[in-house]
Amino acid sequence: MVGELGFVTLLLVTVLSSVLAFYYVVERWWYKQETHALMLPITRLNGLLSLSSLLLLGAAFVTDQFGLEYVASHSNSQLPVFFKIAAIWGGHQGSMLFWVMTLCCWATVISFIKQVRSQYLSDVLWLMNLLIAAFSWFTLLASNPYAPSFEFMSEGRDLNPMLQDVGLIFHPPLLYLGYIGYATVLAFACASMMRDKFDVEWLTLSRNFTLVSWVFLTGGIVLGSWWAYYELGWGGWWFWDPVENASLLPWLTGTALLHAHLAAHRYKMFHRWAIGLAISTFCFSILGTFIVRSGVLTSVHAFAVDPGKGIALLLILVTALIGSLGLLVFKFDAISSQPVRALVSRSYLLYVAIGLLVVTTFTVFLGTFYPMLYELFGLGSISVGAPYFNTLILPITLLSLVAMGIGPLLKWYKGHYVTLRQCLFIIGLSLLLGSVCYVGLLSLVQYPQLQTEQLFVTQIKGVVWFVWILAIWVIASHIYTFIAAGYKLNQLASLLAHAGIAISCIGAVMNSEHSHELGRKLSSETQFDFQQWQVIYHDTHWVVGPNYTAERAEIELIHQNGQSFTVSPERRHYPVRVMNMSEPAIKIFWHGDIYVTLGEKLSSNSYAVKIQYKAYIRWVWFGTFMMMLGGVVAMMSSKKTRVEQHEQVQVT
């Protein structure tokens, strides 16, 4: 019964959104009538129906409805309840239902916007319902999560062990909320271009949608990075995997959109850039979905369903791209912007920053899809790995840090806020603090046993030193501007976001250059030294989990200063899926993690063990948390500005 109800609610969403979209076309462009009567109630009804459909799928998982093929393929009666919840979107069909539900909910949120011309709001909702119809038909016909199983199943095949993690409860929803949030920005932009006279009101209405989508997408990417770090057992946080890159592409263009949108909203500049980036960001979001589900690229993150379903997603992508770009070309001359007036200005620097983000997007896109196209044209096979991305991304990152440090010191249109003496003071302070922090941390925390001469010869890395100086430069210039501007919320948002990027850059380069690892064959009571730690392997014993068995090692680490702790890495066996997984043990310090992985059993009493020191890994995630906090503060600033403007209008 749960399956039938879920299918009916999904069918109703599909039919209602399709009929509403068709009816609106007939009334709006055939009969030239402005009609709004059905748009709001049906949009809100679809929100309730789609949410009900997702909840019914959740109920099917919790109550072990193995008569549904999707539930039988991704669950098991022994699976813990919170992993059954994650299984709702742990496979292709469920994730597409979540996509449809999120589209409907974003449209419902738009329907409650007040003080907007009803015709413009109806155009926005019509575009949203077109997208809902497209994705709901795709879900219903090609990815139905309520399809019955063709054979009797008394037990399910269990959820993929890699997905049995708390991170996977939150990672996909955050990612999809970000992906699909950009559909709202696209709808606002395209609806403004559909009007006889181009309407800049879309900038005001879509400002918070742009910020919320960026915050969600950032959170989803970071949570995925964190999951890969502690779940996959390899100890890295970013592998330049095709699916990772697919989520990075809309984040890069979304970040550029955030800045272009701000310039267009406040200063009437970069209007065309804002619309173009709104189009490209949502199209990259669909492209990311296509990569995960088409099987054209191999990845640990991919669902790898049949290519036919990927082609359907590709058709939706092409239709959205051609339609929105066609509108932009048609309205291109009607979209005017204020020009950049001087090279020494924040507006010009913002133009450069947007350009750097676009170049980065192209670099990642080329490295991700070039091997596929190379093979598609019969030229052989080629692989593009981390060296390509690291080599090209590093100089762009350094240039971006330079630009972020200079930006707050310049006026928007022309000139600068600081004197030459003040600028030199900030530069000198950055050089001093960056050098002291880098050298001091290495000598006090990581290599206290080395003499100063040895430290500089063997451990100091020029690139890392330069990143430290630039990061402090970014933070110092933003703190100066924040204080000079009178502690305004919008300045605080900029400070948090850009300081977060600076801290993440420090964490990334420190992790890359100052991490260490050592692999050993260990048997009972084996001892060896790892940096400043003595490692003692005590024993391994069996443990039984809810749906797995595991070999758990007990390994003690004793520091030179007497500090000690015990870690317990596991090697798990999942009998239903017939899969083995390594569950690493991690000891967290503020300057890095001790990361221990239990490998293959080499003999009756010995195992392969890898121990790693992952330097400053937490700084990467702390920096991204600051970036997200900056986005939240920016939303608060935007709301405060709207309230003040409303109060001024009332007084007038």
Name the overall outline: flat
Specify the biggest β-sheet. 6 strands, antiparallel
- Count of discrete alpha- or pi-helical segments spanning 4 or more residues: 18
Separation, N- and C-terminal Cα atoms? 60 Å
Category from helices, strands and their pairing: alpha+beta
Mean pLDDT: 89
Query: How much helicity do the residues have?
Result: 55-70%
- What order do the helices and strands follow? HHHHHHHHHHHHHHHHHEEEEEEEEEEH
- What is the CA-atom radius of gyration, in angstroms? 27 Å
Overall number of strands? 10
> Any low-confidence stretches, pLDDT <50, length ≥5?
646-652
The percent range for strand residues is 5-15%
Can you describe what's shown?
There is one protein chain. By secondary structure, this protein is of the alpha+beta class. The protein is 63% helix and 12% strand. It is built from 18 helices and ten strands. It has helices at 2-30, 39-62, 69-74, 81-87, 92-111, 118-142, 167-194, 201-231, 242-267, 271-294, 307-330, 346-376, 386-406, 420-446, 452-458, 462-484, 489-514, 617-651, and strands spanning 516-523, 526-530, 533-544, 549-559, 564-567, 570-574, 579-583, 585-589, 592-603, 606-615. The strands form two sheets. Strands 2, 3, 4, 5, 6 and 7 form a six-stranded antiparallel β-sheet that branches. Strands 1-10-9-8 form a four-stranded antiparallel β-sheet. The radius of gyration is 27 Å and the shape is flat.
